[in-house]
## 1
Amino acid sequence: MRRPHAPLLLLACVVAFPAWGWGSDGHLIIAEIAENRLTPAAQAGVADLIGDQSLGDISTWADQIRRQRPETRPWHYLNPPLGVDQVLLEHSPPEGSVLSCVVEQTAILRDAEATHAERSEALYWLAHMVGDIHCPMHVSKAEDRGGNDIDVIVAGTETNLHRAWDGTIWRVRGETWQETADRLESSIDEFEIDATMNPEDWATETYRYAIDYGYNVTPGTELGEDYIEQALPIIDRQFVAGGVRLAALLNEAFAETNE
Ligand code: ADE
Ligand code: ZN
Ligand code: ZN
C-alpha cells in the first residue's frame, strides 16, 4: 500500500480532531491495548452489552453525543484545586467530571440491578473516559481551561497546549493508531503499570504530568525539540496505562457479575 502523504495527513488530523479528549486515534490505541487483555468472562460480558462491536468502535461515542447531551461536557475533564497532592472525588464539581464519570459508570456497570441499557451505556462511557482521565491536559488547571487558552506552535502548526497533548504532539511520530498500538504492545511490560490503583490515583498521576511537565512552555512560542522528546514517552506511558487499567476495570467488573 502507498504510504499516505504525511504532511497532508497531519493537516487533516489537526483540523479534524476536537479538543475534548485524546483524538479518536488515541482512544482506539487505548481500546486495543485493553481488548488484548480481557479475560474470557469480560469478553463475554462486553459482547453481551455491545454485540460484535469492539471497544474501539464505541470509544468515541462520548465525543459524538456532546451536542445532544450538553450536560455531559464537563464529564471529560477535571481541574482540581491548584497545588493538591492527591486528586480526590470531592474535587469534582456538582456537574460532574471525568473522575466522577469513571467512578459512577463503573458502579452502574457492576450493578446487577441496573438495566441492560444502563450497563451498556456505562461501558460506552468507560471505553472513552478511562482514556480521557489519562490525558494530561484533562486533569489540569481551570484558569486556562486545561491549556485551551495557551497558544503554542507544534512542528509549525498553530494550536494550543490542550490540543497539543490531545494529539498534535504525538501525531508528529507519523504512525497510524495501529502502528502505535503494536509498538506499545511489543514492549508493554517495560512500562510497569500499576493496574491496582484507583481512579483518584490515575487522575493524580495525570495531574502531575500536566503540572510538573506540561505547563513548562512559553505561551505563543513553538514547543522546543526537548519538550516534544520528553512529552512523547509520557504520552506512550499514558496510552499504555489507560489500556491496561481499562482492561483491569472490566475484568474485575465482569468477574463480579458472574459470581
Ligand atoms: N474546559 C475547562 N477545563 C478543561 C479541561 N481541563 N479540559 C478540557 N476542557 C476544559
Ligand atoms: Zn473526551
Ligand atoms: Zn482534550
## 2
Amino acid sequence: MAEIFIDKLPRLINVSNLILGHFIEHLGMCINNGVWTYKKTEQTLMQPPLDRVRTELFERISSLRPPIIRYPGGCFSDTYHWKDGIGPRSSRPIRKNKAWGGFKSVFGLIKGFNIGPKEKNHFGTDEFLTLCEKLGAEKYININFGTGTPKEAAEWVEYTNGSLNTKYGKLRAKNGHPEPYNVKFWGIGNEIFGWWEKGHCKTGDIYGKKYLEFAKEMRKIDSNIKLLGVGWKSDWNRSFLRVAKGYVDYLTLHLYLPTINIISYLLGWRALPKNENVYYSMLNSPYLAEELILKTRQDIISTLGKNGLEQVKIAFDEWNIWYRWRQVYRADTPHYNLRDGLWTACMINTFIKQAETIGMANFAQMVNVLGMILTYDDKIIVNPNYLVFKMYSDVWLKDSSLLSVSVKCKNIISEQFANIPPIMKPVLDVAAMISRDKSKLTLFCVNKHLNENIDTCIKFSDSLNFTPENVIGYILTHDTPFAINSRENPNTIKVQKLNFVCNNDLFKYKFPAHSVVVFQFLGK
Ligand code: AHR
Ligand code: AHR
C-alpha cells in the first residue's frame, strides 16, 4: 500500500494566493471574440462598460475566483499604446496587431490562420480593470517596454492609480471611473531576451538599465506598486538583478512544454501522440519547471544575499502545454484532454511545493488562446485544465502555510520526448497546505498511472496538531486519459464530489488511475 505522510515544516512558509492566476492577451481569439465579442449574439451580455462580455463567460470565469489576471500581453504588451484603448469606443483607433498581425500574410492562405486580426481597441484599460473588479481579482498590467517610453508607462500608472487631482486621474473619472483602480502589479517588458520581442535586449545588464528608467518613473507616481522584471537564464538574471535591485519585486519565468522550438511548432504534431511514452513524459515534465524555479532561486539568493527571497519572488507568469503554433489562435484543434488536466494539476502542485520562491503564477491563457475556456457562437465549453483550476480553487485555503508531504509509492520512469529528458518521479504527485488557524487542511493529489489504481494510506503527523473530522473531496477522471470536452459533448469530463467520514488520524483511499483528487480535511 502506498503512503502519504503529512507533517509540519520546520519553518512557516506562506503559500501565495496568486498561484492560481490567469492571463489574457490581445492575441488570436483570446480577447477578440473571446473575452470581448464583436459579433451579433443571441447570448446575454453584461452591463456597460462590459457590454460585449457574455454573461455565461463571466460566470465561468467568476466560478474560478481568479486571484489575479495579467493583461494585455505577452508579446502584445511590448507594442501596445494604452491610450488607444480608453475613452469613447467610437473614437478609439483601429490598429494592426504589431506583435501577432505579421503572421497573417504568411499563413493567410490557410483558412482560420489569421492570428493577428486588426485591433479595434474596444477592450482596453477600463474594460479590463472593471472586469477584474467584478471578479474580485488583483490586476496585473504589463507595460510597453518595447516601443513605449517610461513617461507613457508612468502616465498609465497615474490613469489607474492617481487621485482626482492628477491629469490622468481626472481623465479616468471623465471616462466613468472616479475611484482609483489601485493596480498593484506592473510588469516591465515581456520575454525581452528574445529575438521575437519588440525592444529585445541582448543582456540582462542592458535590460536592467533601461528597466530602471521605467521603474523609477512609475514608482514616482505610486511608490506602492509591485514591479515585475523579465527573468531568463542565470547570467541574464544575475546581471539584471545586480543593476535593478531595489526596483524588482518579482522575476518572471515562462515555460511551455513539451517544446519551444519554432520548427516543431509549425511543422510538428497536430496533437500530442496518445501513447504511453508521451503520456508519462508529459506527466513527469513539471519537474522541468521545478528545476527552473530552483535554478532561478539560486540566482536570486546568490545575487541579493540569503534574504534575497524576501525582496524578490518568482512570478511564473506564463505556463501551459503548447505544441502547435495554431493553438495561439484558438485551442480547439485539438482540445486539451484529461492528460493535459493532470499535467496542469502537477504544475500547480509544483508551484505550491515551491511556495517559498513562487509569489505568483499565471496560466497562459484563460480564453481560446491555448485556452482553458473555449467560446463558440452558441455555447461556451471548458477543458479539463479549467476543471482542475475549479477543483483547486474550491478547496484553496487563503492565508495558508505549506506542509511537508512524504510519499511512499512506486516511481514512473519516463523516456525522452521532444525536449523533455528521461525523468524518474513518484507516481503520486502530492502537495498540501494548512490554514493559519489550523481548522482546514487541503491535499492536492494526482495519480499519474495510466491504468493502475493506487491504494493509499494518508497519515498526519502528531506534531501537526490537527485532528481531521470530516473530509470533502473532488475527483477528475474518465475511462480514458485522452477524453476531451468537445462542442458536441461538452460534459464528457466533469468534476465529481466525494464524501467520506475520516477515521481519526488515518485515512485510506484508492486513487483511480489517471485522476486528480483534492481533499479538504476539516479539523475539530
Ligand atoms: O501566450 C502566448 C505567447 O507566448 C505570449 O505572448 C508570449 O509571451 C509567449 O511567448
Ligand atoms: O520560438 C519562440 C517563440 O516564438 C516564443 O515563445 C513566441 O513568443 C515566439 O513568437
